[in-house]
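About this split. The held-out portion is used to measure sequence recovery: a designer receives only the structure tokens and must propose an amino acid at every position. Recovery is the fraction of positions where the proposal matches the reference. Here is one held-out target exactly as it appears in the evaluation file.
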């Protein structure tokens, strides 16, 4: 009996290669079945990896787009909120500035009679109303340089 390690076929191939069928395309001798198996295993293991990479790439791109969109929406909301608060402050400033009591007190040089003191109390009450409908300016004051004083809403 022959030594199994030295067995070769007529083409010089080992017996294991000789026992495996050969794949032929168009009459040409092509890859062995072992190489075909290796290719199929590589393809079998690479397909899920490639699919995973494609899915993770597309999902990260979608997440980035959604994050950018939500950030832009949040910035728009913040801009609208700040603009609304600034409009409230401007309205309060205009109301306080054009109040007839404010105008008359800016024209006074001293508060020596009771009527002017009463105007200060009424103006303080008006300022308290202005701060009540304003969402932003909780504390403000009017400085009267001619009277050398400051009027705070609700003060007497």
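Reference sequence for scoring:
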């Amino acid at each position: 009996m022959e030594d199994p390690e030295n067995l070769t076929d007529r083409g010089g191939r080992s017996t294991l290669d000789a026992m495996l069928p050969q794949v032929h395309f168009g009459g040409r001798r092509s890859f062995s079945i072992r190489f075909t198996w290796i290719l199929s295993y590589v393809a079998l293991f690479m397909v899920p990896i490639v699919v995973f990479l494609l899915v993770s790439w597309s999902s990260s791109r979608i997440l980035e787009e959604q994050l950018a969109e939500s950030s832009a929406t949040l910035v728009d909301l913040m801009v609208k909120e700040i603009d609304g608060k600034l409009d409230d402050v401007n309205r309060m400033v205009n109301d306080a500035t054009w109040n007839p009591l404010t105008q008359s007190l800016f024209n006074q040089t001293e508060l020596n009679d009771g009527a002017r003191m009463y105007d200060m109390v009424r103006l303080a009450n008006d300022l308290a109303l202005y701060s009540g409908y304003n969402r932003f300016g909780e504390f403000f004051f009017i400085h009267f340089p001619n009277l050398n004083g400051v009027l705070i809403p609700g003060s007497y």
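Annotator remark: Residues 99-156 form one domain.
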